[in-house]
Amino acid sequence: MIVKRIKKINKLVFLIAVRQIWKLLCNLYNIIEQPFLALKTLIIKDKDKSQMFLVGLFFLMPILTYLAARIVWDYYQYGLVLNGVGMVFLIAIIIQILFLMYLGYWVWKVIRKKY
After folding, report:
1. pTM here?
2. What total of structural domains would you count in the chain?
3. Which domain covers residue 36, as residue numbers?
């Protein structure tokens, strides 16, 4: 009885994960192709908070990954986190700012058009 419930729960979790990943990939593709319509649908029509979170997290993930890897490597190599950062970090920050400016611009256009 418990094994059947666990199998059902696992099946539902798998189906929900597939649905969320599919919608995330569709939203990312639409943000590249038609950013205004994609964000308008996401923010105003669907109001799908989980997809808004996933899209935002997708755009923040490169810098978060780099920071986590940097902290782990610094602790492993030197025993502490170094104060100075190199050119790779600056390039990662610049790319991250460009991604966020692109996304922020289109979100601003959608919100401004709404009111």
Report:
1. 0.57
2. 1
3. 2-114
